[in-house]
Amino acid sequence: MSKGWFSTPGRGGDRTLEQQMVGLESAVVAAKGGVVLDVGCAEGLIAMEFLRAGAREAVGVERVAAHLDVARTLRDQERLPLALFHADANVWDPTDCTPYGGFDVVLLLAILHKLKDPSAAAHRFGAVTKSLCVVRLPASGEVIRDERSGYVPHDIGVAMRDAGLSLVDVVHGTYDEWIGYYARG
Fold this sequence. Notes:
Blueprint: E1 4-6, E2 13-15, H1 17-21, H2 25-30, E3 35-39, H3 45-52, E4 57-62, H4 65-78, E5 82-86, E6 103-109, H5 118-127, E7 129-137, E8 143-144, E9 154-155, H6 156-162, E10 165-172, E11 178-184
Parallel strand pairs: 1-2, 3-4, 3-6, 4-5, 6-7
Antiparallel strand pairs: 7-11, 8-9, 10-11
Helix pairs in contact: 5-6
């Protein structure tokens, strides 16, 4: 069996759920009763944690099919309301699955810096955020310079402001990752 992003029963991974939940406490509270979008959801564990904590529904998007297979198995074991899409965040259009007119909480956790055009993706996902968008980036913060986007600087804060969101808080994750909370209104 292949290695996962998360450590799951019978499958090793790079991170534990506990490590990945550090810094997300306020987002969990904000998601109660709402609909969550988790872009780059891997095995879906964060979305499932939000559902267990009171989110009404969640949508997970992931391009690695093996991660989604694990997510489906875990979701089905608990009968959680988690819709899973096999798609590439570089091109996936979130308006394809927004029957609610958007998502209450959007999670962009350790995904933007891996994309070809982080600014465009941040704007696209920020635009479907009703209340809160949480972005996890490397410790360097809001400006991304990564080989996957040709080392072109991408200011995520500008993209979020252009999508109508404002930075309201910054916390740090397990590996001193930068976690920005962007809110609408």
